[in-house]
């Protein structure tokens, strides 16, 4: 559970006692590659923390998959509506390689927020950082060229190109796969 604990402590100084309480609530799960762990239209009461592996979040628009996010070691993944509105959401989460997770129910996590202020503050900071990252992605799509978005992704997440298909990367960048190939060949 080293990757998860390391990432938690990067965001907030959660006490060892609180970490132990959190770990006691975790359920270890390993998913094969290409497993949909969260499905649009179905309520999922779990937050998944990734120890090893990678997932992608996506939506369906006119029958086409549009990648919205990648989660890797130490990250958490869940359905936004599931977590915040306590109802089925619109997004899918799929493993891209064999993925080891530790999950906790949203209800147990909410109980921990009430009893452990450091856990509540850690999640607040985590969600704040995710919000800022999503805002950055949105602004980049509006203001940067496809070439600039590609270069930014390489700079910020260099390992992603060894773990994710070009089709998923192109979808995330908001471009076609042939356009991504042209950008890559012009470098």
From TrEMBL:
<protein>
    <submittedName>
        <fullName>Crp/Fnr family transcriptional regulator</fullName>
    </submittedName>
</protein>
<dbReference type="InterPro" id="IPR018490">
    <property type="entry name" value="cNMP-bd_dom_sf"/>
</dbReference>
<dbReference type="InterPro" id="IPR014710">
    <property type="entry name" value="RmlC-like_jellyroll"/>
</dbReference>
<dbReference type="Pfam" id="PF00027">
    <property type="entry name" value="cNMP_binding"/>
</dbReference>
<feature type="domain" description="Cyclic nucleotide-binding">
    <location>
        <begin position="29"/>
        <end position="115"/>
    </location>
</feature>
<dbReference type="InterPro" id="IPR000595">
    <property type="entry name" value="cNMP-bd_dom"/>
</dbReference>
């Amino acid at each position: 559970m080293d990757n998860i604990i390391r990432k938690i402590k990067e965001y907030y100084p959660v006490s060892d006692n609180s970490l132990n309480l959190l770990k006691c609530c975790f359920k270890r799960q390993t998913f094969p590659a290409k497993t949909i762990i969260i499905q649009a239209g179905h309520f999922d009461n779990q937050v998944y923390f990734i120890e090893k592996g990678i997932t992608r979040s996506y939506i369906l628009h006119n029958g086409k998959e549009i990648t919205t996010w990648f989660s890797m070691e130490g990250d958490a993944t869940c359905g936004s509506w599931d977590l915040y509105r306590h109802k089925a959401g619109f997004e899918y989460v799929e493993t891209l390689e064999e993925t080891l997770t530790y999950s906790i129910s949203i209800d147990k996590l909410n109980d921990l927020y009430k009893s452990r202020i450091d856990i509540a503050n850690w999640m607040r900071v985590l969600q704040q950082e995710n919000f800022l990252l999503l805002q950055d992605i949105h602004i980049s799509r509006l203001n940067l060229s496809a070439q600039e978005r590609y270069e930014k992704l390489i700079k910020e997440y260099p390992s992603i190109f060894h773990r994710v298909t070009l089709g998923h990367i192109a979808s995330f960048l908001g471009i076609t796969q042939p356009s991504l190939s042209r950008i890559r060949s012009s470098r």
